[in-house]
């Protein structure tokens, strides 16, 4: 839902191009919700979700740590006020020179998922802590992750054992249950795998300390999602189930769940047309599409809540598309989207729940369109 502060800003301003407006008060509320639901877990905000300096500074002041995917994101987190001990280099695919730069900046926590990555960390960041990411199937996620990141659970002891042999500190295990995960049991299955790795390493006299529970925490789009408290209860129960009284240190990496609900994109209708007299489903073209920041509509995985001032009129299904000269720039075609029949050129459109993964997915100048503008309140 668009916050009152965002609605006031939109009503008070004129727009020539699509614009994302983010309410930092909603970000604050989301952070406090995670801290309350998982009080014994450290929060590492996934910077890639929205790296706006105002958001990073707010979270740093609230006590958040940061999950960074690149040296550039590390520099952003440091500039926002985070100390090196509150930063994780969480990408498992890193250039060795970036590992060295991060180490020189004081970063001591690195993700790995392969022996070759361990070799790089050992050379560039001697003595650093490493955690091994294991694969998850992502069942129940609206935006499932591929096998690009993570290794088989049975390989993790070898990866962590190699880290020990090369002078690194095997610190823990991480996983990601898939983005926009609405299945509360997803963490139970993943924690069972993590506990197996802990046991396997203990047999090598290596005692891991930390489980990185990853991201996956959702924001609300068209469908309701479980409350943050429900995730906290499910995760706590799974931890006790698989680790008993020897609970590990835990961290989470919310991105979408932290900032998604804080943002609304103000866009407008560019064209309403039909393609065939025998096919009466309208095509509604907006001034924003996949290349303007809505890349997560790929395969129609994420269905945003879209509102207009005409929503009290009769609705009918339509095909929603973006403005660029690329045939892939269609948002919803397989599953038509209901929009007012009275919708016309120039009408204002609000796309809600867009605070995450929109500015960072926006193309620099595809077809000459400028990147998505952002206003942080």
Automatic annotation (TrEMBL):
A cellular-component GO term for this protein: cytoplasm
Catalytic residues, chain numbering: 325 (proton donor)
Metabolic or biological pathway: Amine and polyamine biosynthesis; putrescine biosynthesis via L-ornithine pathway; putrescine from L-ornithine: step 1/1
PROSITE patterns: ODR_DC_2_1 (PS00878), ODR_DC_2_2 (PS00879)
Keyword Transcription regulation carried by entry: no
Protein name in UniProt: ornithine decarboxylase
Superkingdom classification of source: Bacteria
Stored InterPro entries: Ala_racemase/Decarboxylase_C (IPR009006), De-COase2_CS (IPR022657), De-COase2_N (IPR022644), De-COase2_pyr-phos_BS (IPR022653), Orn/DAP/Arg_de-COase (IPR000183), Orn_de-COase (IPR002433), PLP-binding_barrel (IPR029066)
Catalytic activity reported: L-ornithine + H(+) = putrescine + CO2
CDD domains cross-referenced by the UniProt entry: PLPDE_III_ODC
PANTHER family associated with the record: ARGININE/DIAMINOPIMELATE/ORNITHINE DECARBOXYLASE, ORNITHINE DECARBOXYLASE 1-RELATED
EC number: 4.1.1.17
Gene Ontology BP annotations: putrescine biosynthetic process from arginine, via ornithine
Modified residues (N6-(pyridoxal phosphate)lysine): 48
Entry similarity comment: Belongs to the Orn/Lys/Arg decarboxylase class-II family.
UniProtKB keywords: Lyase, Pyridoxal phosphate
Annotated Orn/DAP/Arg decarboxylase 2 N-terminal domain residues: 27-259
GO molecular function: ornithine decarboxylase activity
Annotated organism of origin: Aliiruegeria lutimaris
Cited Pfam families: Orn_Arg_deC_N (PF02784)
